[in-house]
Amino acid sequence: MRRSFKFLLRPTSKQAAALTRCLEDHRELYNAALEHRRAVYRKAGVTVRYGDQSAELKHIRADDPDGQGRWSFSSQQATLRRLDKAFRAFFDRVKAGRTPGFPRFKGRGWFDTVEWPKDGDGCRWDSQPHHPSATYVRLQGVGHVQVHQHRRVLGTVKTISIKREGARWFVVLSCDDVPAERLPATGAVAGIDMGVASLVTTSDGEHLANPRYLAVTADRLAAAQRDLARKKRGGKRRRKAVARVAALHAKVRRQRLDGVHKAALALVRDHDVIVHEALKVTNMTKRAVPQPDGNGGYLPNGAAAKSGLNRSILDAGWGAFLTILSHKAESAGRELIAVNPANTSRTCAECGHCAKENRVTQAVFRCTACGHTAHADVNAAINILRAGLALRDAAGAA
Ligand SMILES: [Zn+2]
């Protein structure tokens, strides 16, 4: 099983400056490679490939020994591959007939990760294994950087990345062959509804990852953004305001991710089987694309039920949650079932009557046939659980 581990770095001020230069040089390499692809395409209509650009790295490094030449060849290749991936995604979007956004130049602050694709190649995890109290990671051009290793690393370290979040630096290890940490069976099953007031509501009526605690930070972020808008360009005060906004953004992200991890962990700990709504790929973009049904109409795509909300933020939250949940479920040996979310929020869990009038408000469900009332998300979670168990039975019978 593949898994990643993320740790806070404790660089010296000299190392922090080197990390910043490392990121900055990789950003320049990315932008230069992008410009190269654009220019060649414009002039000659030829598509430059990753292999072409990788072959030029040797010369770039030789011409700039104190700049690009300082860093790991492999991490630079990884950066060129990242650009290649952006282009592939671009061409895929063109092919699919979607509105393609051309790969963009990365401005300062929009390039925060450098990856070393192989432990031992320009980088070394646990570079001072005999140190009595601390863990270090060695990064070419930066040195041995101290790591706040708050948990054990499992499996074999494959790739090592550094990541800047606001003023803090992290190291992310991607590990292979991570052994599963199976949990004892509980005999319990749960359906989960992914919603707005709470990220997750279970069929038992539990609300998890309630984002309300985020509201305080979000308010401070809004205030910091208003403050920033009033600052003159190029001033020292503006720079400070920008840093404050970035730090609060990072805090919101951390808090949200923390809530998501805790919710996923609680679900996996307490249940053997977890059923969730399948998120369609189209739901992951800002607008759900209508799918023709072949008879001149359109298939339901789940867009209506949750429209009018800030979908991109919600979808990103749900997507991240499901990714984390699936990792934890796999590791614990739990079963995860995805079901089609159609009608789960408008069907009565008591009598099965399905009507959109059943959903009185975002929070209240009242069946127009039998009068059953419930929290709308709990009602949906029960339907989701039933659909999942039915799928499971059908699979078992086949
Ligand atoms: Zn009913």
UniProtKB/TrEMBL annotation:
Domain Cas12f1-like TNB: 318-384
Signal peptide (residue range): none
Keyword Transcription among record annotations: no
Keywords: DNA recombination, DNA-binding, Metal-binding, Transposition, Zinc
InterPro entries to which the protein is assigned, alphabetical: Cas12f1-like_TNB, RNA-guided_DNA_endo/Transpos, Transposase, Transposase_put_HTH
Segments forming domain Transposase putative helix-turn-helix: 1-43
Residue stretches making up the Probable transposase IS891/IS1136/IS1341 domain: 181-287
Family according to the record: In the C-terminal section; belongs to the transposase 35 family.
NCBIfam families found in the cross-reference section: guided_TnpB
PANTHER family: RNA-GUIDED DNA ENDONUCLEASE INSQ-RELATED (PTHR30405:SF25), TRANSPOSASE (PTHR30405)
Record-given protein name: Transposase
Source organism: Nonomuraea africana
